[in-house]
Design a protein that fits this description.
Elements lengths: L1 H33 L7 H15 L6 H11 L1 H8 L10 H15 L1 H31 L2 H11 L2
Helix pairs in contact: 1-6, 2-3, 2-4, 3-4, 4-5, 5-6
Length: about 150
């Protein structure tokens, strides 16, 4: 019985991981397609990057707030931001990634839903390992097995 339970849990975990990976890949692909910039507007995009760098470097500390507002309100600025690198914008990776995820949420909500669902599913996978270990330890514990034998005997 323990073997079947462990096998079922492992199959469920594998299915969840497969589904999560698929959702994450689909979400990333969808966001990449929706936020790809128009090559014919490259000159303007270079100017937008320069403006973003200026915002990030603002000495009064309001730059990130203004950058966030810019990429939330302007779809083209969001495209430029989504295709930039944090070091080009003089941002640390953590702030960049957070704002990038917000850009996806605002401008590509379906992709955001897929990415969020995929991340949530990935977070479930370790719980299955705990459940498998719990099943194994409770089914193979000699003390519990001895108690179970006593209960069954009539």
């Amino acid at each position: 019985m323990a073997g079947r339970t462990v096998e079922a849990l492992q199959k469920a975990k594998a299915a969840i991981e497969t589904r999560a990976e698929r959702l994450l890949m689909d979400g990333q692909d969808e966001a990449r397609r929706a936020l790809s910039p128009d090559p014919s507007r490259r000159f303007l995009h270079d100017r937008i990057v320069d403006h973003m760098i200026g915002l990030v470097g603002a000495s009064d500390g309001s730059g990130m707030v203004k950058l966030r507002q810019l990429v939330n309100d302007d779809g083209e600025a969001a495209q430029v931001f989504a295709n930039a690198k944090p070091y080009l914008l003089r941002m640390n990776a953590e702030n960049f990634n957070k704002l990038h995820f917000e850009v996806i949420e605002r401008h590509v909500p379906d992709a955001h839903k897929k990415l969020t669902a995929g991340a949530d599913l990935m977070a479930l996978a370790p719980n299955y390992d705990k459940a498998v270990n719990s099943v194994r330890s409770s089914f193979y514990n000699p003390t519990i097995a001895a108690k179970a034998k006593l209960r069954v005997q009539i």
